[in-house]
Automatic annotation (TrEMBL):
GO cellular component terms attached to this protein's record: ATP-binding cassette (ABC) transporter complex
Keyword Transmembrane: yes
EC number per UniProt: 3.6.3.31
Record domain ABC transporter: where: 43-282, 333-570
NCBIfam families tied to this protein: PRK13648.1
Ranges for region Disordered: 1-32, 285-316, 560-581
Enzyme class label: hydrolase
Name of the featured protein: Fused ATP-binding protein and permease of ABC transporter
Biased amino acid composition, Low complexity: 297-310
Subcellular location: Cell membrane; Membrane
UniProt keyword Glycoprotein present: no
Regions crossing the membrane: 610-637, 649-671, 691-713, 830-848
Single GO term (MF): ATP hydrolysis activity
Amino acid sequence: MSAEAIFDPSDVRERTNQESPSPVASATPDVRSAADPDISVVASLRNVRFSYDRGATWALDGVDLDIRAGESLCLMGPNGSGKSTLSKILAGLIAPDHGVVELLGSTVFDDDGPRPQEYRRARRSIGAVFQNPEDQIVTTVVQDDIAFGPENLGFPRERIGDRMAYALDAVDMARYRDADPTHMSGGQQQRIAIAGALAMEPRMIVLDEPTAMLDTVARHDVVHTLHRMHQAGTTIVHVTHLADETPHADRIIRLDHGRIVADIRRDGSWPAETSTLPEFIQAPRDRTHDHPDAHPDAVVGADGGAAPDSDATRPSCPVIDSQWRAHTTEPAIEVSHVSKHYGYGGATVINDLSFSVSRGETVAIMGRNGSGKTTLARMICALTRPDSGTIRVGGLDVTSRSRRARKALRRETGFIMQRPERQLFARTVAADIAYGPGNQGLSPTEVRERVDEAMTLVHISHLAQRSPFSLSGGQQRLVAIAGILACRPNILVMDEPTASLDARAKTGIHDLVHELRTRGVTMLLITHSPQEAASLCDRTLQMPTPDEAADMDAATGTKMDSAVNEPAETPRTTTTSHDHPDHVAIEGRTAVHPVPSPSFIASLDPRVKLVSFLALMFTAFTVVSPAQLIATAVMVTAMTIAARMHPRAMWRSISGFLALFAAMGLLNVFFVRGGRTLATVFTIPITTDGLMVAVLYTSRLAMVIILGAILLATTMPTSLTDAVGSLLSPLRRRVHTQELALVMSLALRFMPTLTLETHAIIDAQAARGGSIETGSLTQRIRALGAILIPVFAGTLRHADNLSLALDARCYEEGIHRTHWRRMSIAARDIVFATLCAAYIMLLIALMFL
């Protein structure tokens, strides 16, 4: 088998249904520790084999492995070597094709196949953190997501609070406990996923590259947390590419081609310097030091990153050298007084930011997770608009609505996104890479030449006919990079292009950056590695950190909300030149706002709110008179005010529905003949009754949609789950009420995710000159149709990952779940229900007037 293991979500889904234990089976005992034996070997694998394509190739091929209790083990190896697959087997999330697997003293798989009950028992003491955190987060409030696993394990409510506090502190996310994780950066989501696993108090925790998307400080915090857990006796299985995450390990295992090719055990203690670690652990040598003028800070970092492995005579980029530094004073990117907010009244991600980048210059963008790096990149690439300020790229205004300007901008810029799986949408790798050149009007021969060149540059020519969705995360990233390179942009924005790549692939990307510099390409590189920034870039723009934000808050006396401890403002962004060690301030600051107190509607008991809103929505269909319509309009307006719904936010959430309902309502004008004739259109009379029916029809549907939007905006999915489960509890002996409630909650949670993925695919097509943005109406409709297949594939991928996430968080059918949030009916709930009942009585009375 090749080094790239095939990961096909559809195969996993089918295998999970047929072979691995189902997450919805009979309940296991609520108490874990009483029956747990004293186990010296927590995981044992014998001749384990696993295939995603029914044996055509093997992701794991004859793996024998024992992991002792309390060990800290690092799994390493190139992309596609089988690390993620092995981690899922060790976490009890998938079953192999052949072999014997024992977890926590129980044989969960042998020649007779999987043993579901044993799998369930083992999973209750195993924590798992996935490579992509987005699908592991199952709620829209941080603290509720952390509590989900302990709730499923039946922890007492007080203990859930203690575990939640510990887990959030461990990953430095306590200030965000009331925030929505679906709106956070990938690094912040990863920290929340880690906290969710820590809160379950696992005896063994399996982590698949948990720090790949984290900044340096956060990565250090996570590694330190794992070390403390290890010292406390927790068994750690850590998949990583980074050399500096191995010194605390008792053991390092390297996989290649699905087999264990090295198993190094600690003898005494690991050496402190990574240069003296076993050769396969070390990062490749940084040859920039071979040049006598190389910058002293441009070293191979402890993060495992590497400088380009190329000619020793080539100077490192920080050196002032007219032949190497081809950039001029002509600006390629100009950002002037730019601000950007999330939502209405939400956090200010970027505030009054100004800087410029010269043509041919390579600039690194660095900062903590959530500091606005990706938002800045998207604004520069015209994929989102700033709320204020101007951005010019290649002399073009990125906010221009002109199709000609947009088309010119797409030829000028390229954007490599943070999550490559969202940037891929074609059936094969070659077809995906050809998408951009094809939109530039090139001949088929020229397109093929561009595709071959791009695949050669990133060393993926052997993947040309593979489906991009079947590749590993690192391989997908390389395909996404090739797709942009094939467009030959003059300005390239790269959002963490080396995340999740092994050392060899990182070296290839670094070589690629050097090659693009020699061609005069202007580059913005978002990275968390100071060494990568120093060895590849002319200077660094440093976004403000949360700690700096807290310092600014203390200095200015601005208020902070004690519940979330979130600072109100951060200091100015700084820029660092790698030719000069001094930090120079540039205009710009990032600000965040505390979470406001909940509105009257948001603070209601979810059961009372759900029943009342459903009653109000149904009564809207009984409106048949102008008086009733006025009363309903007053009620909806009062609800909107009590919910503190911003009018623009409300309009954005319902505008599409309103347009559809208005079109449907107007049809009544042409079919209702009663009343006085007002006009005649093509021999069709327009009557007063027809207009009244159209207004009533549209208004009723609009009010139902507005009430639904208020309900969803003010009620968390987990609260809706608990409310539905409580209201249906009298039927629980005959109906799976808990499961129905959970399905509804997950649907509410992942509908925005699918919408986001759809927009991401549209953005990916637009970034490569697709007609979705600049084409004619017919071309746009055709382009919209082209996204259906990747969106469908994304839906299946989310469903697969969600199934694994529920397994990892120990959700099972029929279990007794502890509810972290207590539901209780207060005086305000009685007042609200009374007002709703009075309104319904008013509508009934108006029917008889």
